[in-house]
Amino acid sequence: MQSEAHPDDLPGGLPPEARISIHAIRGRGAATFMPHRFMHDTRTAVDDGWDFPLEDAGQAVPPPTRVHLETARSALCANDSPDIFFDHSVNPYRGCEHGCVYCYARPTHSYLNLSPGLDFETQIIAKHNIAAVLRSELSRPGHVPRLLNIGSATDCYQPVERELRLTRGVIEVLRDARHPFSLLTKSSGVERDLDLLVPLAAQRLAAVYVTITTLDAQLARRMEPRAAAPHRRLRTIQTLAEAGVPVGVSVAPQIPFITEDMEQVLEAARDAGARSAFYTVLRLPWELDALFREWLALHYPQRAARVQDLHNLDNAQRGAGKTYDSDYTTRMKGSGLWADLLRQRFTGACRRLGLNRERVELDLDQFRPGLARGQGSLF
């Protein structure tokens, strides 16, 4: 889709004819290299009449994906936020080529001096030694097994995983140590590792959640340009369920007047074999607020103001442009009338479809740190 954003306030007082219009980029979620919050200087591209005509501004070659290897110093990331269901997470990658425009992890690229916009989906950091580091951490005498999730920040089965196989290495370490885990993905790539997941699931050591934001293929292509198509994710749920792997669906994030088919997603996922479900609402921390507004201006300008309906903001907050409340008690589910309606819709649909009737209980008691070190066990 090639459309233009025309904000009222032009940077630096530039006249409209001098500013280069922003265009959607095919295959990318972000449209610009959004400046990050640690930058001292920002620059605005303008048409000086020498490089190319204004009407050709949207024809630039899309930026390629580059993968950078990083030597990780740690693998386990502890979570102390009460609104998240797991205690530890492992993320083999920073950045994600799926390019989901709403991803709450985008601002983390700022710590790397990279843009939360296009850099997040084109400059991928791969922790090449993460399996070895994880094995060392699990082998420590003082390690206490807790609920662990793979891929909570960026997708652990994004395209580069086909070559680097870092996620598979992490699963092999967890298998060796008998450490239970869940993983979250939008990719059909998880099917590659069924040989590991099926026996672990039979021992109550693994569960998988597949995110399906919408069944609308056109909307998904705009929001999640390089993730698997919705119908392909449904087939992944079916494949996992038929193989005996506990599988749930994440209908996240919910976005006012953008994602409108939550009930249909839940029903399709149930029919495919999902037995549990959860949702969160759109979160817009740091630079993601401006980036998502940019995306709305390109694709759904008439609906941009409704994002503020996620949180019970007063008129003063709305007038100041605030769209997001980061309070952990409300950030995941929102607050106010729209959030209450969404909660009722989700609860009612799950009750009608028979979802969440049984909780998947992973077995933490099987963990053996000696097995992570390659030692035998008498128990």
From TrEMBL:
Pfam families in UniProt: Radical_SAM
All copies of domain Radical SAM core, residue ranges: 90-267
Alphabetic keyword roster: Iron, Iron-sulfur, Lyase, Metal-binding
GO MF annotations, alphabetized: iron-sulfur cluster binding; lyase activity; metal ion binding
CDD domains reported for this sequence: Radical_SAM
Tagged with keyword Transcription: no
Superkingdom, taxonomy of origin: Bacteria
Annotated InterPro entries: MJ0683-like, rSAM, rSAM_sf
Name of this chain's protein: DNA repair photolyase
Species of origin: Acidovorax soli
Lineage summary: Bacteria, Pseudomonadati, Pseudomonadota, Betaproteobacteria, Burkholderiales
